[in-house]
Design goal:
Length: 179
């Protein structure tokens, strides 16, 4: 591991303080992406704050938020992000067919507005630009604030996935969802 720290005993005081701050928040733990950023503790604290806002203080309902996060993990190719949030999607009652439509970027099996979200997230990450037609559809379906939060997700989760890669903490995406 060239950056980050996973061993509490080896953490410097500033790293341990950032670790403990994250662990004491609503996550209740320190997920891998944040361990990978601990060499820059102030950035780890700031970045986790954005994630906390997305996960616990946004306006998106749980289902749409997890659809977007899973789509971001899949579009970037982060198996860790996919698996972490797919577990939440399962708890929310998403079917294997819905989850497969998120994983492959097609949106098949989802309601049309949810499928639009998947297509927007995939497009934003893979094309590195916000498709204005897809964004207009999201604004029409969910409103400007929700469309803005979806855009935040499209930018934030690739950042986490990059840290997972840098810290050698990621894993491959599944190819298919098994029921």
């Amino acid at each position: 591991m060239l950056i980050g720290e996973t061993d509490l005993q080896k953490m410097l005081p500033a790293q341990k303080a950032a670790h403990d701050l994250i662990a004491s928040g609503p996550r209740g733990s320190v997920p891998y992406p944040f361990l990978a950023m601990l060499d820059a503790p102030k950035f780890a604290e700031a970045i986790q704050g954005v994630g906390e806002a997305i996960r616990y203080h946004g306006t998106l309902d749980d289902r749409l938020r997890e659809i977007a996060i899973c789509a971001a993990g899949a579009a970037y190719g982060s198996g860790y992000e996919w698996n972490y949030h797919d577990e939440i999607a399962v708890k929310l009652g998403m079917t294997p067919a819905e989850r497969q439509g998120i994983l492959d970027g097609s949106g098949e099996g989802l309601a049309e507005a949810e499928a639009l979200c998947v297509r927007y997230i995939f497009s934003a990450i893979r094309d590195r630009a916000a498709d204005q037609a897809l964004l207009a559809g999201l604004v029409a379906a969910y409103g400007r604030e929700a469309a803005t939060e979806l855009t935040v997700i499209a930018g934030y989760y690739p950042l986490l996935a990059l840290f997972l890669s840098a810290g050698q903490l990621d894993r491959p995406l599944p190819e298919r969802i098994t029921p």
